[in-house]
Amino acid sequence: MSRCRRRFKGRGWTPLSYAAAHGLVAAIEMLLARAVVDAGSQSIYALTPLFFAVVNQQAAVVKIFLERTDIDLDPSNRLEQTPLFMTAVYGYIDIVEILLKTGRGLVDAIDARGTCSPIM
């Protein structure tokens, strides 16, 4: 196995995670069409493909994930932060607005360190 592939797999990234982080919309649509892809898979830091899209400011990808009913919008990473929490912390207002419009994200989240969501 190549060094690059070991690094990719060793961190728990999936092809869907990689595509989400890099905004590869066509690849995401193709992967989600396949029944074998787990859209809720987590990296070693408990980051889902939605997290990768959010922290890399991939608004088009976030919208694709939000259209699906099989994707949890409030997964928590190892610090118990949700995607909405993270986008607010990073100041990605456009993605915060996209997430808030769904009405499905936790606005009043508190992370493992006791930090309240900046949205509150």
UniProtKB/TrEMBL annotation:
This is Ankyrin repeat protein. It comes from Polyplosphaeria fusca. The keyword Repeat applies. InterPro entries: Ankyrin_rpt, Ankyrin_rpt-contain_sf. The keyword Signal does not apply. Keywords: ANK repeat, Repeat.
